[in-house]
């Protein structure tokens, strides 16, 4: 599989933009459908040369689900481009008139409306707006960092400095390229628990699981989302791997390269890769677990 230069629309914690080159050689060369139950920005999918595949994307974040549901169709991508262009014009005009303080006020207002819409029963009908708000906030948040509190409310703060107020919010070439890539395949997008989403996986399908990493004993802050991914959740990932293996699926899982993770997956193939660390700009050792 050769790498495709399709950029993700989102900058996402745990995204694999700079890790994909290490992963592609370790993936199976042939498979039927592709499943990614923790899709995030879908950077791994975008690095793969998939044409005519059945693709199942899933994420528990309702705004991520909305974004990819919108991007599945040409009309959805066009509507998203229009809304992002409006956000771009409003943001530029606000910053020109009121500087960084104006940009921060706009960010706070969009974040508040985003949080309300996330929990609104009608959010599916407004998925273009939800997707546009997510993209705006992702582009203008500090470090492009998406964070939630225990109530599921986005808590990220405004990022641009006085010296670098301009932010490229509307990137039609990225939206269009992403939509074109997705249209090359038959894509389904769901918002379910990963184990439920993977019930559709069949023999000779390829499942790529990139859950929040199991923290080491010395690690501090590791959670960016409402749904806490604790030790029990990691055991469910292992249990799901066992089930998928019995079904004859090809499975790749990523996690931190620690003694605890190695012991958990001792019955499977383990490969260490050294990759750039997303936020700190350093390197880290990740563990690639495969059953093939």
Describe the structure.
The protein has 292 residues and is α/β, with parallel strands linked by helices. The chain has 2 domains: 20-60 and 192-290, Vaccinia Virus protein VP39 (Rossmann fold, 3-Layer(aba) Sandwich); 71-172, Adenine-specific Methyltransferase, domain 2 (Orthogonal Bundle), CATH 1.10.1020. It is 40% helix and 14% strand. It is built from 9 helices and 7 strands. It has helices at residues 20-23, 43-46, 62-71, 74-118, 127-140, 172-183, 194-197, 231-247, 259-264, and strands spanning 34-36, 54-58, 186-190, 206-209, 250-256, 269-276, 283-290. The chain has a 7-stranded mixed β-sheet with strand order 3-2-1-4-5-7-6, sandwiched between helices. Helix 2 (43-46) links the parallel strand 1 and strand 2 (54-58). Helix 3 runs antiparallel to helix 4 (74-118), helix 3 (62-71) packs across helix 5 (127-140) and helix 4 packs across helix 6. The longest helix is centred in the first third of the chain and has 45 residues, at 74-118. It is globular, with a radius of gyration of 19 Å.
């Amino acid at each position: 599989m050769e790498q495709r230069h399709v950029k993700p629309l989102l900058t996402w914690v745990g995204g694999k933009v700079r890790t994909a080159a290490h992963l592609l050689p370790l993936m199976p060369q042939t498979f039927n459908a592709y499943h990614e139950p923790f899709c995030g920005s879908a950077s791994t999918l975008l690095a793969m040369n998939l044409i005519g595949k059945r693709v199942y994307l899933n994420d528990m974040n309702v705004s991520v689900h909305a974004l990819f549901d919108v991007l599945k169709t040409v009309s959805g991508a066009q509507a998203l481009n229009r809304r992002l262009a409006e956000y771009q014009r409003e943001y530029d005009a606000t910053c020109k008139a009121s500087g960084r303080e104006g940009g921060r006020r706009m960010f706070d207002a969009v974040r508040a409306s985003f949080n309300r819409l996330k929990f609104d029963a009608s959010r599916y009908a407004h998925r273009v707006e939800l997707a546009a708000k997510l993209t705006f906030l992702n582009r203008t948040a500090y470090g492009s960092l998406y964070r939630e509190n225990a109530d599921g409310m986005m808590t990220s703060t405004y990022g641009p400095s006085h010296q670098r107020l301009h932010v490229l919010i509307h990137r039609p070439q990225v939206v269009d390229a992403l939509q074109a890539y997705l249209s090359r395949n038959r894509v389904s997008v769901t918002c379910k628990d990963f184990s439920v989403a993977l019930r559709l996986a069949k023999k000779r399908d390829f499942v790529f699981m990139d859950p929040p990493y199991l923290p080491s004993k010395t690690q501090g802050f590791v959670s960016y989302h409402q749904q806490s991914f604790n030790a029990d959740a990691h055991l469910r990932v292992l249990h799901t791997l066992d089930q998928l293996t019995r079904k004859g699926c090809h499975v790749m899982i990523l996690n931190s390269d620690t003694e605890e993770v190695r012991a958990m997956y001792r019955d499977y193939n383990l490969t260490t890769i050294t990759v750039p660390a997303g936020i700190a700009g350093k390197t880290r050792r990740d563990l690639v677990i495969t059953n093939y």
